[in-house]
Design goal:
- By secondary structure, the chain is mostly helical.
- 73% of the residues lie in helices and 0% in strands.
- It is built from eleven helices and no strands.
- It has helices spanning 15-29, 31-38, 44-69, 83-106, 112-119, 122-134, 140-156, 158-161, 168-191, 197-219, 228-246.
- The longest helix has 26 residues, at 44-69.
Length: 248
């Protein structure tokens, strides 16, 4: 999300986007806790599957009801989908399960603090890829803001990073997850001019769930939780971290 200052008052930031961003970040921050609880019973891949599947079922049903009663407000039928749209929507699903899977695996080896800290390196990869692929340029305010935000993340996790040597594998997975997440955001930016955030997430979760099912059944065999604690964790991932965090 980008916050833009209006020409009428360049000293006041639109409060609603800022509040939305804060709520989204708080919702996403619960994800590693939910993942840790879920991985007491489920594998990393099963945890990711339940996160995506729960979002797809709940918000897919809500979207269907909305389109049924408010079809006249649907603005996504202006033009037919192009092959590029189909490709990007499919890539969204692939990149999401790759990034979320690596992130979930990293929590098996490293601490929540390390995982969140390294995953916050996403802006670096997003900016570099945007510059290389789309020739985008960033002004000094943007660069300063990114450095300030990343510095804050580093200082918050500096104490925990002192033990990184024993968690090197997990840290590598978390950092690699940030790379794929950066690519994911660039693709979403291309799709947002055509689709709503909910539609993109439904594709992300639908494609991701379908791709994970055969892999989990062949290698692990356990798709859904058996205990109520794990059910609460994956429901939290699907509705809070995915439904609020990613969607907002």
């Amino acid at each position: 999300m980008q916050l833009k200052l209006t020409s009428q008052d360049n000293t006041r930031v639109n409060f609603i986007p800022f509040l939305t961003l804060v709520i989204a970040l708080i919702s996403i921050s619960f994800a590693p806790i939910f993942i840790r609880i879920s991985e007491n019973e489920l594998s990393a891949n099963s945890t990711v599957f339940n996160r995506l599947f729960i979002f797809f079922m709940v918000f897919g049903l809500a979207q269907t009801i909305r389109q049924r009663f408010y079809s006249s407000e649907n603005i996504e039928i202006q033009s037919p989908l192009t092959p590029q749209h189909w490709l990007l929507l499919f890539l969204v699903g692939i990149l999401s399960i790759t990034s979320l899977g690596l992130w979930a695996i990293s929590l098996q080896y490293t601490s929540v603090a390390n995982c969140m800290l390294l995953n916050n390196m996403t802006p670096i990869f997003t900016s570099i890829l945007a510059w290389l692929l789309f020739k985008k340029h960033f002004d000094s305010k943007f660069i300063f803001g990114m450095i300030l935000a990343l510095s804050g993340a580093i200082f918050l996790g500096l104490e925990d990073l002192q033990g990184t040597n024993s968690h090197l594998i997990g840290d590598f997975y978390a950092l690699f997850s940030a790379v794929f997440l950066g690519i994911y955001f660039l693709i979403v930016e291309q799709l947002r001019s055509r689709f709503s955030a909910t539609t993109i997430l439904l594709w992300r979760c639908g494609v991701g769930s379908v791709l994970l099912v055969p892999f989990i059944l062949l290698t692990e065999g356990n798709l859904f939780p058996n205990t109520w604690q794990t059910w609460l964790a994956v429901i939290g991932l699907g509705l809070i971290s995915e439904g609020l965090g990613q969607r907002l």
